[in-house]
Specification:
Number of helices: 6
CATH class of the largest domain: Mainly Beta
Radius of gyration: 20 Å
Oligomer: single chain
Number of strands: 10
Number of domains: 2
Shape: globular
Helix content: 25-40%
CATH architecture of the largest domain: Beta Barrel
Length: 198
């Protein structure tokens, strides 16, 4: 939880408790709480760029050509899919399915909108972005269908975190794909030892 959220929570608690103690009406207290939250709420605005898809690498990485004609490897923000093409890791369960699903949705030549993160790049120099195709957040679509978990959460690249976490809960409740095997999805990724025991 970020410092900002803790601060908002603390101030809100003080207002509610103080309002009750001082006999301030609930509607006035709620109004004050809303005002405080609005002061701290800042809309995260990220740069958007159109790009042409050159290739889908796997469920969370694509290669695009920007308007400037530059090829960029794009890592999708806030998601993690099982490995299907890692150079040093074996293929993980649902890795191929995740990759295949991504290739069904995003095809070579498609024009997508990249909502570029801040910071823009990870330590592998990949461009970090939310990928939009036909006004659909592709990152979220992967989570909704149980092909990705919410992962790699680093402030300030958390613009759609709440929506993604809600989609993850729904996919988990439905036991969609990666969620169909208890214990397979962990906070650190995917546990193949659970699969191998079955």
């Amino acid at each position: 939880m970020g410092i900002k959220k803790l601060l908002i929570g603390a101030i809100t608690a003080v207002v509610i408790l103080g309002g009750s103690y001082l006999g301030i009406s609930k509607s006035n207290t709620n109004s004050l709480v809303d005002s405080i939250q609005n002061v701290f709420k800042e809309e995260i605005i990220l740069e958007k760029h159109e790009a042409e898809v050159i290739r889908v690498i796997d469920g969370d990485t694509i290669i695009v050509k920007t308007d400037e004609g530059v090829e960029e490897r794009v890592r999708l923000l806030l998601i993690d899919t099982p490995e299907s093409v890692h150079p040093t890791e074996p293929e993980q369960l649902f890795g191929k399915e995740s990759s295949d699903y991504a290739k069904e949705i995003i095809k070579e030549g498609d024009v997508v909108t990249l909502e570029v993160g801040n910071p823009e790049r990870d330590h592998y120099d990949r461009l970090l972005a939310y990928v939009w195709i036909d006004d659909v957040n592709f990152n979220q679509l992967m989570i909704e269908n149980g092909y990705a978990r919410v992962g790699y959460i680093y402030e300030p690249n958390t613009k759609y975190l709440n929506e993604f976490e809600e989609s993850e809960i729904n996919a988990k409740n439905k036991k969609e794909n990666i969620w169909s095997i208890d214990g397979y999805v962990t906070e650190d990724g995917f546990d193949m030892s659970v699969v191998n025991k079955e």
